[in-house]
Each structure stands twice: as C-alpha cells, then as structure tokens.
Specification:
Length: about 270
C-alpha cells in the first residue's frame, strides 16, 4: 500500500517540479503563471495535454518539441525528477504510512509542501537572476498567516512562537517599505532575512540554523575564501549583489538539512 502512496507523492512532486521551472521562467518576466498556455520557446507551438505531463512527456517525446523537433533542455527533466525524489525522500523520512495517516498530519504536510514550492522558486530565480523575488515572499507570508489561523483553530498552545515570527516579518516589511536608500543591495538583504524567517517558521529553528551553517560551508567550498572576499568587495562597490546567489545556496541547504534532520529524528531515535 505504501508503495502506491510514495508513487502518488513522486508524481505530485514532478508536477510541482514542472511548475517551478515554469514559475522561475515566468515570474521575473511578469508572464501570468496560470492563464498563459505553455509553449515551445523555439516555435511557439502550444503544448497539448499529453505534452504537459512532467517526466513522462519528456520520455514520450524523446526530449524534442513535437512540432519543430528542437531539443528540450534535459535540465527540465532532471529538475522534475529531482523534485519528485525530494518529496518522496521527505515522505520516507517522516515514515509516512497509508494506514495511520490522519487529517492533521496531512494538513501539516500540505503546508510544508506549499512552503517547499516557494523555496524552490525563490532558489531558482536567485540562481538565474540574483534576485530574491518579493512576490514569492508575499506568497509565503500568506501561507504563514493561514498556518497561524489553522493552529489557532486546532491547537492554541504553539501559536505564540509563530506570532513572534509574524511580528518580525511585519517589522521587515515596514523596514523595506520605508527604506530610503532603496539600493538593490539593501533590498536583497531584507528579502534574504525574510527568506531565513520563513525557514525558521516552516522547517523549525534547528533545521534553519543548520541550513545557514551548511550554506556558508557550501559557498566557501565552492568559491574559496579569496573569491568570496572579492565578491564582498564588488558588492560594496557596485551596491548590488550580482555575483553570488546566496538565496539559492540557502534554499538548497534548507532542503538537505530538513531531509537529514527528519531521517535522524524518525529513524535513529
Ligand atoms: Zn517547438
């Protein structure tokens, strides 16, 4: 029975993955993510129903556009598979069981899944454009408020911790609104703080702190200390962060930390 559950979660994950690649491409260009029909970027051929199904359509079409035979970048296929695997790994780490699954557990998982959608889109856009997309952060804030309302209904006790984070988020929003210097660098820092705040809320304090340390470690290991000094110099001079996708490394670290933490917590203790 559980194999079916995990299969459903994998397929769901690939659909999410297909949505991320679309959102990462469209949101910064302000193209509607729901109404605009998916099309081939080469010949503008509108994708039919079967061509929209993630992973499967790539295999089915042999990695080519049906009309113009232009090769589809395997990156999309890889990202969809990785997204599916991420959600399955989380389900396994949580020891999700078809027979003992209850409504509260499902709702909590839904909120985590909604947060992960935002996390992947923020990471993707930051990697492509060195921007932490504000509109996606506002979406996270909406989910967060919905989560507080849900907690208020089912369990009042844990709500104070979240109210504290909500206050912090509102302070950041106000600081961002009255920020007089309006440089890209300041804006990036405020958005990054909001992203970190979301990590604390949705993946917990321990995972969030481990994520920040892991991100620093990955950045150091990838670029080395000298290159990093060069980056900080450039940021100071150009007033913008054009070189280092910190949000991307934070996002990836957050997913890895969360999965490892859940595995240790549910399987080793
Ligand atoms: Zn085409």
């Amino acid at each position: 029975m559980n194999i079916i559950l995990y299969l459903i979660i994998f397929v769901m994950g690939t659909f999410f993955g297909s949505f991320y690649t679309l959102a990462v491409y469209r949101i910064p260009k302000k193209i509607d993510i729901v109404k605009t029909h998916s099309f081939c970027p080469n010949c503008n051929h509108k994708l039919g129903f079967w061509e929209l199904i993630p992973v499967w359509s790539y295999i089915f079409l042999g990695g080519k556009c049906k009309e113009c035979k232009q090769k589809i970048r395997p990156r999309y296929f890889i990202l969809e598979v990785l997204s599916g695997l991420t959600y399955v790994l989380i389900a396994i780490a949580l020891k999700l069981d078809f027979l003992t699954l209850n409504v509260n557990e499902l709702i909590n998982l839904a909120f985590l899944a909604l947060y992960l959608v935002a996390l992947f889109i923020i990471s993707g856009i930051d990697k492509e454009r060195r921007v932490i997309q504000k509109s996606v952060l506002y979406y996270v804030l909406v989910i967060f408020v919905m989560y507080i309302i849900y907690l208020y209904i089912i369990d009042n006790t844990s709500i104070y911790r979240y109210m504290m984070y909500l206050t912090a988020a509102i302070i950041l929003l106000i600081v961002d609104a009255i920020n007089l210097t309006r440089t890209a660098k300041d804006s990036y820092v405020i958005s990054m703080l909001m992203f970190i705040l979301a990590m604390f809320v949705f993946t917990g304090e321990i995972v969030a702190i481990i994520s920040i340390i892991l991100a620093l470690f990955i950045i150091l290991a990838t670029f080395g200390i000298n290159k990093l000094k060069e980056f900080t110099q450039k940021i100071k001079n150009e007033n913008a962060n054009k070189n280092l996708p910190i949000g991307f490394y934070l996002g990836i670290s957050n997913v890895i930390s969360l999965i490892v933490y859940l595995f240790i917590n549910n399987w080793c203790m």
